[in-house]
Amino acid sequence: MSKPLILHMLTTAKNLSPFDVNMAVDAGWVSAIPYTNVEPDEVQGLVQDAIFSRSPKGLKYTGFFIGGRDTKQAMDMLKAATEAMFPPFQVSVLADPSGAFTTAAGMVAVVEDKLKTEFSTDLAGKNILVLGGTGPVGQVAAVLSAQAGANVRIIGRQLDKAQRITDMCNQEFGAGKITITAGADADKAEYIKTADVVFATGAAGIELLNAELVASAPQLKVAADVNAVPPSGVAGLDPFDNGKAIAGSQSGAVGVGALAIGNVKYQVQSKLLKTMIEKDHPLYLHFEHAFAAAREYIQASK
Amino acid sequence: MAKRSILHMFDPMQNNSPFDVNMALDCDFDVLMPYANVKLESIGRLTQDVIFSRGPSGVKKTAIFIGGRDLGVAVDMLNGAKKAMVPPFEVSVFADPSGAFTTAAALVACVEKELKEKHNKELKDCKALVFGGTGPVGIATGVITSLTGATTTLVDHFSSEAAQGLAEEYNRRFNSNLSGTVATYDEDKIALIADADIIFCTAKAGIQILNPEVLSHAKQLKVAGDVNAVPPSGISGIQLNDFGAPLVHATNAENAVGVGPLAVGNIKYKVQHALLESMLTGDKPVYLDFIAAFEKARELLK
Question: What are the structural domain ranges in chain A?
């Protein structure tokens, strides 16, 4: 008999997200075991505890999931987990704090697809504004877009915070190879004049781009919004929109709503969780792998 | 439908150990339920919640595991759980805080085997030192060894008072006959090991406690056991898989041999597996502590 599939689920928060638990069990993990309030420096011990209690063969049926809320912390924990292991005592690890990695991957991949199908272009060289962009989803969407060649600006209410987050994204997630810039929310009327793409990743229920700003964007092509709670983060955009023209856009921009993004996010997270089970070698998965999976899913579903 | 087996894992700490989780699921427990931050005073209530919800046949498919880091608390919890049983509503309980009971049991049993085979001696006629003797594995090693009749001393790296205090505390609790002392510098260690028959090293991983120079002062040393699997070894010259290999640096102790961490780990694994399994297979409930673990380790090594 083969060993039962065990996913050890770590979070720095007080509880796991039931979303992640359901996803893991539906992906085929037989036991999803929670570890809460985990400090990053506890990861090594927890991982080594897990790898030394099963044979290398049994470890193929063992995995780690890293949740929490903080993107950098999750990446640090992923790194600590990777470094705690050595052949042949290795297991796969997936980091997806607050679902931000898979959500951002889904959003950027859908927007990329709209650029291609509606405007025959891609992310390279596009001016992208990430509104409410200092949170987990905004950070990762900025990084993925910048890695795809876009000129990305993270917009926050406090410029100094946006600047800090931007530096962190460039250094930590982009390994110094990307140059995202920061901007203040107060200046967005200026920035919108040259924007090709807008990601709205702020808190639910806050309108980040009003009708007037939508109308004043002469080259806007796609606007995406992860917020499913009314009012929409982008005026005129509905959560169900998936490439529908945004009412009031002078440039013929199309909208991508939370449910269209959520569908891809769901498929991507499920795919990554299944890949951990299927592959014979250990995988260390984060936002870049989520983005690759999102692109693949969109191509495959055409 | 047949009832599935459930292991309720009570832990005074914030999280269970992934080691124990893997072990329990590999022993065919179908469902594993972690309980974190469990307090001693809650044990009676939790236990009665366990026993009264499945009927007399269901309790045979139900068991309790007690983890944590503190031996005394674990044993108190084990006793508390036992007291809360109401026959025929009773389930098996296994305490193994930080794996200390099974690790210590395996360590002492392996050393005992080599003592018998290579030196034709019994533990009760020996003088034993436990370096790193104030941690969970060290204390459990000390108590088990002392209860066999060996003259046993817990050695702390920093504080004689700490070692003595713990020795007295555990003597009261388990009727053992431990003493405690300190050895910070090589001179202290040399003085201590001159007439020791047995040396256990249960100190922190990756720290060498006894170097070749110190070891060369041992004159009666017969067997040394080390549970540290992270280089450098706690006792210089002991290899990971050693099981009765000559202790090369103990140049003045005739036929001294060593037992390495993977040899101990292998027995520990088998002991824990057997004890977990015994909770599901036996007809009568069992209450398993370090004594049961030691008996099982001895049996496995016969």
Answer: 6-99+264-300, 103-261
Confidence at residue B1, expressed as pLDDT on a 0 to 100 scale: 66
pLDDT at B206 over 90: no
Q: Confirm or reject contact between B206 and chain A (CB < 8 A).
A: no
CA-to-CA separations, A152 to A142, A155, A190, A219, B299, in angstroms, rounded: 6, 10, 15, 15, 67
Mean pLDDT of B57-80: 94
CA neighbor of A29 nearest in space, from B36, B62, B25: B25
Q: Is B14–A46 a contact, with Cβ atoms under 8 angstroms apart?
A: no
- Tell me how close the Cα of B236 comes to any Cα of chain A, in angstroms: 23
Beta strand spans in chain A (E): 6-10, 31-35, 62-66, 92-95, 127-131, 151-156, 181-184, 197-200, 222-225, 242-245, 254-256, 284-285
Task: For B238-280, write each residue's pLDDT tens digit.
Answer: 999 999 999 999 999 999 999 999 999 999 999 999 999 999 9
Name the residue with tokens 């004594």: B291
Taking the C-alpha atoms of residue B4 and residue A30, their distance in angstroms, rounded to an integer, is 14
Tell me which chain A residues have a C-beta less than 8 angstroms from the C-beta of B265: 52
Question: With a CB-CB cutoff of 8 Å, which residues 15-74 of chain A face chain B?
Answer: 30-31, 33-38, 46-47, 49-50, 52-54, 58, 62
Fold of B103-263: Rossmann fold (3.40.50)
User: Is the separation of the CB atoms in A105 and A140 below 8 Å?
Assistant: yes
Single-letter code of the amino acid located at B225: G
State how far the Cα of A89 lies from the Cα of B148, in Å rounded to an integer: 36
User: Which helix (H) or strand (E) covers residue B264, if one does?
Assistant: helix B261-281
- Quick check: bond before A88 cis, omega within 30? yes
Q: What mean pLDDT do residues A59-77 have?
A: 96
Interface test with B, best of A1, A30, A41, A53 (most B CBs within 10 A): A53
Q: Which fold has domain A6-99+264-300?
A: Rossmann fold (3.40.50)
- B125 contacts chain A (CB < 8 A): no
Q: Write the class of the CATH domain A103-261.
A: alpha beta
Containing H/E element for B62? Answer: strand B62-66
Q: What is the pLDDT of residue A1?
A: 55
A17 band by pLDDT with thresholds 50, 70 and 90 = very high
Q: Which residues contact B253 (CB under 8 A, 6 or more apart)?
A: B218, B219, B220, B221, B222, B247
Q: What is the DSSP letter of B198?
A: E
- Cβ of B19 within 8 Å of Cβ of A38? The answer is no
